[in-house]
Design a protein that fits this description.
Rossmann fold; transferase; 6,7-dimethyl-8-ribityllumazine synthase activity; LS; two-stranded antiparallel ribbon; 153 residues; 22% strand
């Protein structure tokens, strides 16, 4: 990926779910590494850990509403169980983040793994499918660059 133009003032927020921490910590590592490689200083990144995916939208909204961030990245892992609980969580979180993005005119990056098995989550958090946290950080960087060059609000 070509490095997007950053002026050093961009701040990024990352909201990470504690639930399935063995997966989400790896997603966070990928996101932080990607932002760092793009020239974003550690001091320009704020990370908030929340109990689970359900709690991501509220904290993401707080980050968005304070108007200090160029983008908010949300990371979590919801793995299918014996009921449809995962589907309700995934749908609610994805729709909430989309609504926040549109209401706040801010890139809200959806990094919630929605996997059938733990094995799938492992593969998507640094395994043979890559690291979706790193991909989310790349998307955040690209969106920030795109919006800097888009028509004014």
């Amino acid at each position: 990926m070509e490095k997007p133009p950053l002026d050093g003032s961009e701040r990024f927020a990352i909201v990470v779910a504690e639930w399935n921490r063995s997966i989400t910590a790896k997603l966070l590592e990928g996101a932080l590494s990607t932002l760092s490689a793009a020239g974003v200083a550690d001091a320009q990144i704020d990370v908030a850990w929340v109990p689970g995916a359900w709690e991501i939208p509220l904290v993401a909204q707080r980050f968005a509403q304070c108007q200090k961030y160029a983008s908010v990245i949300s990371l979590g892992a919801v793995i299918r169980g014996e009921t449809s609980h995962d589907q309700h969580i995934n749908r609610a979180v994805s729709l909430s983040l989309q609504q926040i993005a549109l209401a706040c005119d801010l890139p809200m990056i959806f990094g919630l793994l929605t996997c059938e098995t733990m094995e799938q989550a492992i593969h998507r958090s640094g395994g043979n499918v890559g690291n979706k946290g790193a991909e989310c950080a790349e998307a955040a960087l690209r969106m920030v660059a795109l919006l800097k060059n888009s028509p004014p609000k």
